[in-house]
Design brief:
Blueprint (H helix, E strand, L loop, with lengths): L1 H11 L17 E8 L3 E2 L10 H16 L8 E5 L8 H11 L6 E5 L5 H15 L4 E9 H4 L10 H6 L1 H5 L4 H11 L4 H21 L9 E6 L5 E6 L11 H5 L20 E11 H7 L5 E10 L8 H12 L9 E4 L4 H10 L13 H4 L6 H16 L3 E8 L3 E9 L1
Keywords: Acyltransferase, Fatty acid metabolism, Lipid metabolism, Peroxisome, Transferase, Transit peptide
Catalytic activity: an acyl-CoA + acetyl-CoA = a 3-oxoacyl-CoA + CoA
Organism: Mucor ambiguus
Length: about 425
């Protein structure tokens, strides 16, 4: 069956046979011209806590237009990952695109593969370009967990299905409990989790101090009103959840958040947060014709299913599939951006794949600056490419676990 799938895949591959291959440039490559994000701010407390997600997204869209110099009318389609917003964020995404300067002829869709939605959007656009359906597109992601996080964002589910299918019922397990399940089943100690979390903050603090985030963040204006209604407008240009001075010792003092005997705490789990990101893609020949800068190349991706009750192990199973599809080994990858939904699952994934920790999230991750669900997959691309360039490296992988039991990963090459 696998060989038959490879044959079919070969029939569908670009005609020159070398498109989207590591180390080889082809006119048919799907390349990235711009990848930007907003700052990530704390849910209900941070800089975007009174800003609507469509306004954040529109600001990032405008940043991409300005940075790349693209004529907005050349963008055929935009896909936006969003998880929690009512109505799938469909109308809001269209409004954000129009406000940002894209014409009515630029179409917009949204997608929801939970925590991988931003990456799913990027991959959908890349695939549409590969197949010739469109020439230029944007894969993006956005989330306001201030506005839409919590039980109210959940859809009603069938008791019949949950009662008759154990795996389906496991999809309803709270994410924090799935983290506890991973820690217990694979012996990921509290000390390991706290050390990983402290390292995430330390790396993010260093990245902020050295200005390593500036290339990827679009500064945006935001307004906050106090209890008396007095408004203050200011510039949001840095992640406000990063905590200098965070150590394993300070984290060890926190109580478990989901199980009194557990190991997952508010300090070693991702932060509830708000933010947006966008990635502009097209074929190499299109970028060269338009005289646009090429900062990276999309190679391939993979999505896999894993048991819902330990959904956090997803990256450990998605990454090998994507890396093999790219013709690589795990050790060939220079930088891994693995989402830190929980330290338990991030540590498990890194150890399972025997990835050196110094290759993982060199500027910190979601534990330090947050995980706006729909945004993260696109945000990781915006974080990865400048870091590959800064380090003089070439190959990067982004990956995340996915609620209900999946994992996703994608391979990129810096240029």
């Amino acid at each position: 069956m696998a060989s038959r799938l490879q044959q079919v895949s070969g029939h569908l591959a670009p005609t020159d046979g070398v498109a989207n291959k590591i180390g080889v440039k082809s006119p048919e490559d799907v390349v990235i011209v711009s990848a930007l994000r907003s700052a990530i701010t704390r849910g209900r407390k941070g800089g975007f806590s009174q800003t609507t997600p469509d306004e954040i997204l529109a600001g990032v869209f405008q940043g991409v237009i300005k940075q790349s110099g693209i004529d907005p009318a050349l963008v055929n389609d935009i896909c936006v990952g969003s998880v929690l917003a009512p109505g799938g964020f469909a109308t809001n995404a269209r409004m954000a695109a129009l406000y940002a300067g894209f014409p009515e002829s630029s179409s917009v869709a949204t997608c929801n593969r939970q925590c991988s939605s931003g990456l799913q959007a990027v991959v959908q656009i890349a695939t549409a370009i590969q197949s010739g359906l469109i020439e230029v597109g944007i894969g993006a992601g956005v989330e306001s967990m201030t506005q839409n996080y919590g039980a109210a964002s959940l859809s009603a589910t069938s008791e019949k299905i949950a009662d008759s299918c154990a795996a389906a019922a496991d999809c309803l397990i709270p994410m924090g409990i799935t983290s506890e399940n991973v820690a217990a089943e694979f012996n990921i100690s509290r000390a390991k989790q706290d050390a990983f979390a402290a390292s995430s903050h330390a790396k993010a603090v260093a990245a902020q101090k050295n200005g390593w985030f500036k290339e990827e963040i679009v500064p945006l204006e935001a307004t906050l009103a106090d209890k008396e209604g007095k408004e203050t407008t200011f510039l949001v240009d840095r992640d406000d959840g990063v905590r200098p001075g965070t150590t394993p010792e300070t984290l060890a003092k926190l109580k478990p958040a989901f199980n009194e005997n557990g190991t997952t705490t508010a300090g070693n789990a991702s932060q509830v947060s708000d933010g947006a990101a966008a990635v502009l893609l097209m074929k190499r020949k299109t970028a060269e014709k338009l005289g646009l800068p090429i900062i990276g190349k999309y190679i391939t991706s993979a999505v896999v299913g894993v048991p819902p009750k330990i959904m956090g192990v997803g990256p450990a199973y998605a990454i090998p599939v994507a890396v093999e599809r790219a013709g690589l080994k795990i050790s060939d990858v220079d930088i891994y951006e693995i989402n830190e939904a929980f330290a338990s699952q991030a540590v498990y994934s890194v150890e399972k794949l025997q990835i050196p920790f110094e290759k993982v999230n060199p500027k910190g991750g979601a534990i330090a600056f947050g995980h706006p669900l729909g945004c993260t997959g696109a945000r990781q691309v915006a974080t990865l490419l400048p870091e590959l360039k800064r380090q003089g490296k070439k190959i990067g992988v982004t990956s995340m676990c996915i609620g209900s039991g999946m994992g996703m990963a994608a391979v990129f090459e810096s240029e």
